[in-house]
Each structure stands twice: as C-alpha cells, then as structure tokens.
Amino acid sequence: MQYGKVDEADGYTARKNVTVLSNQKGDFGNWTDGTVNYENTNKIITTQMTADTSFGGRLGLLPSSFRTSGTSGAYQYGAVKEYTLSKPYLSMVHLG
Predict the structure, then answer these.
(1) Is 24 left (phi over 0), alpha (psi -120 to 50) or beta?
(2) What is the DSSP letter of 87?
(3) 63 lies in some domain
(4) Alpha-carbon span 22 to 28, nearest angstrom
C-alpha cells in the first residue's frame, strides 16, 4: 500500500495488486489439501479446510471438530490448501 504522491523513477506506475486466480464463486475443487506449511515447516497440518459460496465464495472454513489447543510442541497448526499456477515463478499460492 502506498500513500502520498506516486513518483516512480522510471516514469511508469506499476500496478501493485492484481488478481492471480479467480475463486469461481466458491468452487475451489481444483485446489488440493496441502501437507506442508512452507512458511514454517515446524508448523503441523492437522485438518482440512472447506469452501462455500457465501460472500461470493470463500475458502478457509475449518470443521467444528477442529481443536485449537492440545498439540504438544506445535507452533501452530491447522489446514493448508494449494493451487499450482501455470507460471514457474508463481509456482504455488499458499493459504494456511
């Protein structure tokens, strides 16, 4: 996020946020359940998330049976969904 005057040295104002992938109004069937938290591999994955069509489609719903405590030695844990993009430098979108 940039506040104030936009003054790019090269004279070109780059668009900073773009839509990489549409959520298809809640259809995340082409996303897979991840097993690794790549941001911090010490975090463990213990459940799976689902999606629904509320608010134009949302991903990240955890089951009511998901416990938020009780895993000894875990930094954090939960669920991960992954989607492989077609461009090699954007190999994966990670939500977790």
Answers:
(1) left
(2) S
(3) yes
(4) 9
Tell whether 28 is covered by a domain: yes
Asked if 85 and 52 count as a contact pair (C-beta separation under 8 A), the reply is no
Model pLDDT for residues 41-62, shown as the tens digit of each residue: 888 888 899 988 888 888 888 8
Here the tokens at position 51 are: 């999606």
pLDDT at res. 38 = 86
To the question of pTM greater than 0.70 for the whole model, the response is no
User: Which domain covers residue 49, as residue numbers?
Assistant: 24-95
Q: Give 69: exposed, middle or buried? Use CB within 10 Å, 0-12, 13-18, 19+.
A: exposed
Cα–Cα dist 42/66, whole Å: 19
